[in-house]
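Supplementary notes (optional reading)

For those who missed the lab, this is the record we used. Protein: Alkyl hydroperoxide reductase AhpD. Length: 176 residues.
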Amino acid sequence: MALDELKSAIPDYAKDLKLNLGSVIGNSDLPAQQLWGTVLATAIASRSPRVLRELAPEAEANLSPEAFKAAKSAAAIMSMNNVFYRTRHLLSDDEYGTMRAGLRMNVIGNPGVDKIDFELWSFAVSAINGCGMCLDSHEQVLRKAGVERDVILESFKIASVIQAVAVTLDAEAALA
């Protein structure tokens, strides 16, 4: 199992990450599609080839082809949106906030899977990319759809752990 290989690669000084990785994936209460879509989208967002290589096959085995594609789509579109909206928000000139984005984002309206799942994946990617505007927007959509806070919390716990594992393993590879 690739998850076990990934856990075994985590150095002893990061034992908490190893335990957390097993916990957020192995003990998650999320339905399989939400869980593995979140894992895949955040593994992509982590920008770590190793983490993605290890987790993508397991995600693919647990997702329909449509869900696998949609999770990749969430990571792709949020990669663009997080930079755009975070930048627009951080600029002191409020005029940028009134200007049309002019960027294609059709996949958000028609992701090919349940809209809630796509929103959850988009939220988790936004957590990794640090876009407060996108986090607020996706969280509001999820809450209005009746998604409980514990489900949303679970998604950003997964994002947090996968990002930390990626940073740790990439640092170890660079230091080797």
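If you only remember one thing from this example: The chain has one domain: 2-175.
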